[in-house]
Design goal:
This protein has about 475 residues and is mainly alpha-helical. The chain folds into 3 domains: about 15-90 and about 200-330, HUPs (Rossmann fold), CATH 3.40.50.620; about 335-385; about 395-485, Arc Repressor Mutant, subunit A. It has helices at about 35-50, 65-80, 95-110, 120-130, 200-210, 220-235, 265-270, 275-285, 295-305, 320-330, 335-350, 355-370, 375-380, 395-400, 405-415, 425-440, 440-455, 460-485, and strands at about 1-5, 20-25, 50-55, 90, 110-115, 155-160, 165-170, 175-180, 190, 215, 240-245, 245-250, 315. Helix 6 (about 220-235) links the parallel strand 10 and strand 11 (about 240-245). The N and C termini lie far apart (about 80 Å). About 35% of the residues are buried.
Length: about 475
């Protein structure tokens, strides 16, 4: 197979006809990260060109296709905002149409009946292996009369593939790729039980759905040459192909679970990633526009083209995703974040939040989100608001309430108790006075305060903590801290 880079971008030459793309997952598991990126690229390309983005569920593998997997795929696409046009197409329901096309090709001479038995085919492959030849069908029934077969013998229908010359696909990512037709054998279109093969079903569905651009992983590039044989045999318009390199782990190996190749639902539910962050990360995973890193959806639609897709595999980096997610957390609406964080807090404390507590959580977002990289960290950071008194101190917090720390805590408690208006300026003035009187920096005063107020050594800014807790709760926790240390 030879590759040659296409000189000009096809995006600048798109015909006036409507662009139609499709995403066609197999429902044998959750929507994985590579599939999500393929869906995103198809969605963006269609939206940029004012076309349609379609969804097809390739559920012909009945043993492995499951309804929960279908629901997980649909749920993941909706969460990512990759809405499809029209109703989803289910490939299995179209089996009769696929068989109809196979018989049309049989009638036109572009396909033929093959009566080779399983034993004969296995013997053929064994001989090829012994002679170190490529394993491919040898065309033994290509030119034979079907009447040579025993009456009622089972048969498959095979494509009568071109044998001479070569086929070139001008792929919009991989460039011009050429294969000698002699390398392509006569593949099966219809099995002996009358069921269509995947290769036939894909081509028929793409044609009937009006797909103009097939954008998919480059592991399908070899399939494109075989599928193109069906397209040409039927005299159908040839789609534009764009085969995207696969995603690898940070170590350069094929992406697997150990690299973070989880279902999209796991990024949402387990890792606390926002959909806009995952969208942005997947967009930049193999596609780029200058130095732009933060690209919201509207900007992505404006910019996306196939010429920006690289030819080398992309490397998945969880740290980069979390950093990007931190950016979108800081940009997110506080009420929306509180709604996403509330169930996580409830799970941590073992009870649902009340209305007042949910409002408190919302007000805490502005203080918590600058330090968080995901929703889990936001939930953990907010826990101090909902702990019951007296607080359990972790080891680091307890260490801050040593003798010097308790002395500063007592002074701070007295100064804060004298504050008449519980607002930021008054709190700052009170604690600044404590630090000055003790001859230490404000950070020294904040450390034992933080331990007593939150039970932890790390928290939002001390003034934010005091304001969020309020006067009564804040002073009560300081009293608890002093009493606990003296007990």
């Amino acid at each position: 197979m030879e590759k040659e880079r296409v000189g000009a971008s096809f995006d600048d030459k798109i015909a006036s006809s409507e662009v139609v793309t499709r995403f066609a997952p197999s429902p044998t598991g959750f929507l994985h990260i590579g599939g999500a990126r393929t869906a995103l690229f198809n969605w963006l390309y269609a939206r940029r060109h004012g076309g349609r983005y379609l969804l097809r569920i390739e559920d012909t593998d009945r043993a492995r296709s499951t309804q929960p997997a279908i629901e997980a795929i649909l749920d993941g696409l909706r969460w990512l905002g990759l809405d499809w046009d029209g109703e989803a197409v289910f490939q299995f329901e179209r089996a009769a149409r696929h068989a109809e096309v196979a018989h049309q090709m049989l009638a036109s001479g572009h396909a033929y009946k093959c009566f080779a038995t399983a034993d004969e085919l296995e013997a053929m492959r064994a001989e090829q292996r012994a002679n170190k030849l490529p394993l491919r069908y040898d065309g033994r029934w290509r030119d034979r009369d079907p009447s040579d077969a025993p009456a009622g013998a089972p048969f498959v229908i095979r494509l009568r593939a071109e044998q001479d010359g070569e086929t070139t696909i001008h792929d919009q990512v991989q460039g011009a790729v050429t294969v000698r037709n002699a390398e392509l054998d006569d593949m099966v279109l219809l099995r002996s039980d009358g069921t269509p093969t995947y290769m036939l079903a894909v081509v028929v569905d793409d044609h009937d759905m009006g797909v103009t651009h097939v954008i998919r992983g480059d592991d399908h590039l070899n399939n494109a040459f075989r599928q193109l044989g069906i397209v040409r045999a039927m005299g159908w318009p040839e789609p534009v192909y764009a085969h995207i390199p696969l995603i690898h782990g940070a170590d350069g190996a094929k992406l697997s679970k150990r690299h973070g190749a989880l279902g999209v639902d796991a990024y949402r539910d387990e890792l606390g990633i926002l959909p806009e962050a995952l969208d942005n990360y997947l967009l930049r995973l193999g596609w780029g526009h200058g130095d732009e890193e933060f690209i919201p959806r509207e900007r992505a639609v404006e910019l996306f083209d196939l010429s920006g897709v690289g030819r080398s595999p992309s490397r998945f980096d969880m740290k980069k995703l979390e950093n990007l997610n931190g950016h979108y957390l800081r940009e997110a609406d506080d009420a929306r974040l509180a709604g996403l964080v509330a169930p996580r807090v409830a799970a941590l404390i073992g009870r649902a939040l009340g209305e007042d507590e949910t409002d408190l959580l919302r007000r805490s977002m502005a203080s918590l989100k600058p330090r968080a990289r995901n929703l889990n960290e936001l939930a953990e950071g907010a826990l101090f608001l909902f702990r019951t008194r007296p607080l359990d101190l972790d080891d680091r917090a307890a260490a801050l309430l040593d003798e010097p720390g308790l002395a500063l805590l007592a002074q701070a408690r007295a100064a804060l108790g004298a504050v008449e208006t519980w607002d930021a300026p008054a709190l700052e003035t009170a604690l600044a006075g404590v630090a000055e009187a003790a001859g230490v920096g404000l950070g020294k005063v904040a450390q034992p305060l933080r331990a007593a107020l939150t039970g932890r050594a790390v928290s939002p800014g001390i003034y934010d903590v005091l304001l969020l807790l309020g006067r009564a709760e804040g002073l009560g926790r300081l009293d608890d801290g002093l009493a606990h240390a003296s007990a």
